[in-house]
Amino acid sequence: MALRTPTRAPLLLMGLLTTGVAKLPIPALAPRGFWALSKNLTVVEGNAVELRCGVSAPGSVVQWAKDGLLLGPDPRIPGFPRYHLEGDPTRGEFHLHIEACDLSDDAEYECQVSRSEMGPELVSPRVILSILVPPKVLQLTPEAGSTVTWVAGQEYVVTCVSGDAKPAPDITFLQSGQTISDISANVNEGSQEKLFTTEATARVTPQSSDNGQLLVCEGSSPALDTPIKASVTMNVLFPPGPPVIEWPGLDEGHVRAGQSLELPCVARGGNPLATLQWLKNGQPVSTAWGTEHTQAVARSVLVMIVRPEDHGVQLSCEAHNSVSTGTQEHSITLQVTFPPSAITILGSASQSENKNVTLSCVTKSSRPRVLLRWWLGWRQLLPTEETVMDGLHGGHITMSNLTFLVRREDNGLTLTCEAFSEAFTKETFKKSLTLNVKYPAQKLWIEGPPEEQSHRAGTRVRLVCLAIGGNPDPSLTWYKDSRTVTEPRLPQEPRRVQLGSLEKSGSTFSRELVLVTGPSDNQAKFTCKAGQLSASTRLVVQFPPTNLTILANASALRPGDALNLTCVSISSNPRVNLSWDKEGERLEGVIAPPRSAPFRGSAAAMSVLLRVSSRDHGHRVTCRAHSAELRETVSSSYRLNVLYPPEFLGEQVLVVTAVEQGEALLPVSVSANPAPEAFNWTFRGYRLSPAGGPRHRVLAGGALQLWNVTRSDDGLYQLHCQNSEGTAEALVRLDVHYAPTIRALQDPTEVNVGGSVDIVCTVDANPILPGMFNWERLGEEEEDQSLDDMEKMSKGATGRLRIHHAKLAQAGAYQCIVDNGVAPPARGLVRLVVRFAPQVEHPSPLTKVAAAGDSTSSATLHCRARGVPNIVFTWTKNGVPLDLQDPRYTEHTYHQGGVHSSLLTIANVSAAQDYALFTCTATNPLGSDHTNIQLVSISLDQTSGESDDQLPTEQQPAGPLGLPLLPVLFAVGGLLLLSNASCVGGFLWQQRLKRLGKGISEKTETGSEEDRVGNEYEESQWTGGRDTRSSTVSTAEAEPYYHPMRDFIPQLPPTLEEVSYSQGFAGLEDEDMAFPGHLYDEVERTYAPPGAWRPLYDEAQMGPSDLHWPEDKYEDPRGIYDQVAGDLDPMEPDSLPFELRGHLV
C-alpha cells in the first residue's frame, strides 16, 4: 500500500533526527514490506490487547500512529505508560501492546516504516480498535432492593435506567419470573463521548399471586458475560377469603346448657391476613384472633359456656382487612336444651303427729318440659294436682301438689320430689327433705347437792338436768329466778357460769350447769325447763361483804376541819363486824342502824369523826369488816387529802457551808398540798431569777445551786414558797469560807525604850479560829528569832504580839502568819522600831577645829549623834543661832539608820567673825543632846600646844612664813577620813541589809523583801535648797515612806510611791530634791504599802490605769445577782490621807 503524501515528510525528518534508531539487519536482497498485521479488534474495557506489526525493512525506523498521532519509535513510548512495543526488532517484530484498555484507547492505529536506502516508506492498513464499556449499574424506580406495596389489580409504572455503556445495553423486565412485554425503551448519550444509556419503562398490574415475588430489571451488553439485575419485592395487598365457622358436630346450632362450646372461625388468604371478630346478636363478644403466615390463615376461637338464656342467640364471625371492600361473615343460631336449674318444695315438713302435711313441688324452667313424682322413703305418693306453665328462655315450668297424714313412725323419713324427661335420660333431678314429726318428752328432773347444804362463795356447784324422750330433742333451758342462764359474752369477764351443751344418750337427754357460787346465788331458784315440763332447786351461799364502801361528808379538807366517814357493808352472809383504824391506830366508831341488803344477806354500817391537820395528809383511814364464821376480813381505805400551805420540815438545813470558788447547794425540805407552785429566792433584797443565771440555778425541787462562790455571796438567803393555800418563808445562811487576807498591819510599830506595845495584825477571814495567828521574828541569828519574852494574843479577826519593857535588841522585822484551814495562809511583815533620845558623840570635852582666818580658807565642822526617830540638828555660834541664810554657811545632814551626822561648812573664814564656839544640838521628840566645837586659828592652835582630836580641815600651804607642811597634810587627811566615815558605814550597812533581805525572802512564801532590820527609823529630809544652802540626805538604800492610815482597812492599789527611792537619789549630786519632812510625829503604821515591800498578803492587783479610787460602790464582777452590796463602804477622795492623794513629785 502506497504511503500517504502528508505523512512522508514527518517520517523522513524523524528518520534523520532519531539516533540509535532500529536498523534492520535484514539481508539487502530481502524485499521490503509487512509480513504480519492485525485486523480490526474489539476488547472489553480493562483487558489488554496487542496490535501486531511484522515488517521487512532493513535500516528503516518503525513506529505506530494513533488516529494520526505518531507514538515514536521508542519501545517504551513515552507519555503513554500503558503502551509499549513488544517483539524482536532484529526480526522485524514491532507489536503495540496496550495494558488495561479504557475508552481513550478506542481509535484507528497504523504501523509506519520510514524511508531508507533500501526503499521508500511503508504504511500499514488502518486497524480499528473498539473498546466495549459494560454498564456498571441499573437505577430502578422504585428503589432497587426495597419492598413496594401495591394493591392487586391496579396498574403501576416502573422505570429502569442503565449506567454509561458502549454499546447501549438492552433492558428487559421480569414479573414473578415472567417477561413483561409492555416495555418502552430509549437510548440516550452518556456522560462521555462514545458512551450511551438506556431508559426503559414498564407498566405492571400486580395480582395476588405476585405477593412476595420479585420484579426484576435486567441489563445485557456484549461487554457483559451475564446481565446485571436490579429488583424490588412486591407486597401485594388483596382481601381475604370468606370466614368459615367449624361446628364441632353434625347438628349445627344444637347445644346443651352448661356445655363448654369452642367454635373456630377460619379466614384464608388476604394480605394483610384477615381481622376476625365474633358477634352475639350483633354485639361484639370477642376481638381476639391469631394468624399463621406460613399458611396464610387467620383464626379466632370463641369459647363460651352455654347457658339457658343463650337459646335462639345468633353467633356471627366477621372477616375483613384494609383492602376489603366490605365485611364477610358466617352466622349460626343456637338451639339450647336445658334441664330445670332447681326443684323447690314449698311447705313445712315439720308437723305434730296425726296431722296432715301439704307440700308443693315446683321446677325451674326447662327445655323440653319434665314430669314430677313423689317418694316417702321407698313408697311413692300420688300427687293431688299437676300444672305446666311457660318458663324463661323458651322453656316450661312444672308444679305438683301433695297432701298426706303423718304418724310418729314417719319421723325422720325422706320425702323426695323427682323430675324426669326423655331428653335427660341419663340424669335425675331431685329435691328431698326429712319429715319431722313432733311429740313431747316423757320425764324431767335435776341432780345436784341438797337444798339445805351451805356453800362458801367461790365454791363450784354442779347441777345436771335430765329428760327422757321427745321430738324435737328437748332444749333443756336453765333459768335463775326466771332469767335465762347464759355464759359471759366477753372473754375478760370472770367465767362464773359454765353452761354445758345438750347431750344425748339413747333416748335420755342431759345438760350440765356448773356454778362458781357468788353472793347473787344465795337463795336463788335454779329451774330447768323442757317444753311444758320443769324442775327446780335452791342454793344457800355464805359470802363476805360484797362491797365495802367509805362515804365522806367532804372531799377538800383543810387543817382543823371535821371529817365524818361512814363505812357501809352492802351485803354479807352471815353479818360482819366493822372497825376503824388510821395508820395502825384504832379509832372508835358509831354503829349505824341496819338497812336492807341485796342477795338476801345482811348489811352493816359504822361512822367515825376525825379532826384533820396537815400531818394527816396522805394518811389512810381503813375500815375493816370481819366475819368470824367465814374467818375472813375485807378492808377498804380512804386517803386523806388535806390542803395546806407550804410548811418547812424539821430537817430543813438552815446553814450551808461552802468554800470560796467552789459550789454550794441550798437544799429545800418543804411539805405542801398542793405542791408549791413557785420557789423564789432573794438575797440582800434582790430576787434571784428562777430561770437561772451565770452562777446559779433553781433546781426542780426548789433547791438553789451556786457555783464559783465568792465571799460576797455569804449571807442570808430568803426562800419564799407559795401554793394555792398560802405561802411560807425560810432563811438559809450561806457561810462562805475563804483564805485569810491581812487587812491591817501597823507597820512600823513604835515603842519607846522600856515601854510596852502591841503589834496588831487584823485579817479578813472565814472561819475565824482561835489559834490561827502565829508570829515569827526575822533575823540573821537564831537567838534573834526567839519570842519567849513576848506575849501572843488573839481575839476574833485581830492578833496581837505584846512586847513588855522594850529593848533595843528587840527592834527588827516580824512576820504575822494567819492560817484558818483554807489555803493559802496569809503572811505580813511589820517592823518594830524602839525609840530613844539623841546621844551626841563627844570625842573630847571640847573639840577644836583650826582654820586660817584670811577670808579665803574654809572650815568644816562635824557633829554626829544616835537616836530614833530621826534627829534634827541645830547650830549656834557663841550661843546665838547660826544664820544659815548666810551664803558663807552650808549645812548638810546625813542619816544612816539610827546614826545621824551634820556637816557645817564655813567658807571664807574670817578671824573676826568665825573664831568662836560653835554648838551642835541634836533633837528628836524624846529629847536632845549637844556638843561644842571651837574654831581657832592655825597659828593659835600651834602656839597653844594643845593636843586636839579634831585636826584642821584646811591649811594654808607653806609660804614665806615657813609653816610646817606635815601638820597641814595630817589635818587634811584626817578631815577627809572623817567626812567619808559615813559613806563607808553606809556601804557596810547596805551589805547587811541585803543579807538580811535574802534571809527574809527564803523564810516567807510571798518573797517579801525587808530592807531594814534592827532599831532603824528612816526619815529623809532636805533642810535647805539653793537658798538655804543646807540639806538632809538619807544614805539608806531605797527606804520607803509610810503614811498615816488610821482605821483604813481595804487594800490599796499600787501608787507611784512604789518607785524605788534609789532611783530618786541617783541624781542627788546634780539636782536638789525636796521630800516631805517630819512625818514621824503623825505616823501610826497599820500596814506596809506595796512599794517598799513585795506583797506580804493576798490582795487584788490593779493596773496603772487604776491608780485612783473608784467613785461608785464595790461590785464583784462574778456576782450572781443584779445588785450586790460591796465589801467596802463608799469612800470619798477627801477621806484619804493627804499623802495618798495624787502623785508624788
TrEMBL record:
Signal peptide region: 1-22
Location(s), subcellular: Membrane
Residues of the Ig-like domain: 27-130, 135-233, 242-333, 340-434, 440-540, 544-635, 740-821, 838-939
Source species, domain of life: Eukaryota
Spans through the membrane: 965-989
Pfam families in the cross-refs: C2-set_2, I-set, Ig_3
Keyword Plastid tagged: no
SMART domains: IG, IGc2
Protein's organism: Daubentonia madagascariensis
PROSITE patterns, alphabetized: IG_LIKE
Source lineage: Eukaryota, Metazoa, Chordata, Craniata, Vertebrata
Bias-annotated ranges (Basic and acidic residues): 1003-1015
Keywords, comma-separated and alphabetical: Disulfide bond, Glycoprotein, Immunoglobulin domain, Membrane, Signal, Transmembrane, Transmembrane helix
Entry-linked SUPFAM superfamilies: Immunoglobulin
One GO cellular component term noted in the UniProt record for this chain: membrane
Family classification: Belongs to the immunoglobulin superfamily.
Residue ranges of the region described as Disordered: 1003-1035
Membrane topology qualifier: Single-pass type I membrane protein
Protein name: Nephrin
